[in-house]
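Re: folding output
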Amino acid sequence: MRAVVLHRFGAADELRLESTPDATERTGWVVVQVRASALNWHDVLVRQGVYRSPLPHVPGADGAGVRRDTGEPVVVLPSLHWGTDQAAPSAGFQILGDVERGTYAELVAVPAECAVPKPPGLSWAQAAALPLVGVTTFRALFTRGRLAAGESLLVLGASGGVATSAVTLAAAAGARVVVTSSSPDKVDRAKALGAADGVLHTEHDWVDAARRCTPGNAGFDLVLDPVGRWNEAVRALRRGGRLVVLGASVNDTARMDVRSFYFGQYDLLGTTMGSPADFAGLLSFMAETNAPPPVIDRTFPLDAAADAHRHLESGAGFGKVVLDHV
């Protein structure tokens, strides 16, 4: 089979399309013929060696295709070995593409529970773009964040896969969504997806500007932070509000004032990925609310995976970057 192979960690140029042995079935696992795969920032970290993946390695967490044993169209849930505890993953939890070879290939092997029937109406690109950001965002907003209709949500960032997914899912749930961005154009595009307002986080007073988007300037019920800006995020909350943290692309450490945190009665919630039950909840939610599919920014052919990574890292896109395997 053809696959994008990483022989050493480093820049995007290290991703090369090669011929490799076929993925094979094993007990409890199935092989999926991949029609499309989607990029995530997680893939960049794998490429850079942050997760110390075994080399040579095939990256990629997200994908959609056809089960070779049944011919059924499926999406690949990249949450491997979650376990039975819905509160947190098991000690054996992995994200597909960390240790196991991933979806930047014509074939990928996954546990049978991770080959989920493809939702009707989604293109291959949309189906491939759904699993990681979809299940991650659903768990962050609803399982962990307890977002309810009528509440206010601030999403830090307006253009990435998690951010665009958060806007569409939260708006479909009846929440009032505000986003931050460095680009007025991206704020406008988030509004087109369902955000009520947006502010530029390049401005020194952006937290105050965001709070002015809430009733009585009281602050938000929930803030979703996929970048690691905890200090500003907590200041944007109403008293008793919840902060859900699911990324560290801007900061991987944070200093916080402890007294103001506990006097504010805030909740600080960490999350990543989601369980098969979370993914089932996402699919049911999308069917019940007619929430729109993932936003696709650009599609690249499989042999242009390096170009796709460079585009993702540029920050110029809006939505998901997808590799077309057909």
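--- second protein (sequence, then structure) ---
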Amino acid sequence: MSLANDVGYPALFGLVMAESGGVPVPGETALIAAGVLAGQGQLDLALVIVVAASAAIIGDNLGYLIGRRGGRRLLERPGRFATQRQRVLEVGEPFFERHGPKAVFFGRWILGLRVWASWLAGITRMRWRSFLAFNALGGISWAATVGVLAYVAGDAVGAIIRDVGVGALVVVAIVLAVGLFLRHRRHAGP
């Protein structure tokens, strides 16, 4: 067996599950890398999607449980940053009451929300059945979408890196980031 087969699936599962549970690790990056490796024939795309979706669902449920059992106490405790933690509850509770299922589903595609949505859902006492359903739908669709896009784009990304070089890609990424920042500032106003 290849190194990708021996390490790829367990690493993908561990990173996606940890990120989904609230640990800031590169879970989505692992899924992208696994999709690219599947495009190169080193991993099986269907298995990549199943592993990533399962890890996302399990990790999110662990994060929900952590949030439900101890997250509120953590946010309400006195001490450093108590005001900011209280603000999380003041904003989070009404938000999750109105938009909880959407936040759980769409949060899969938003880095900050992907890492903390499960905790916030538990802390704000979102109904577990609703959480589970939207978490599963989000995890499956996220794993399939990102995995397939990485699978399809994998050869193109490899060709660009080979032909243009990593340095040119970094320059393009910086130019795009600066352009997006300037656009955001212009639209945000004074």
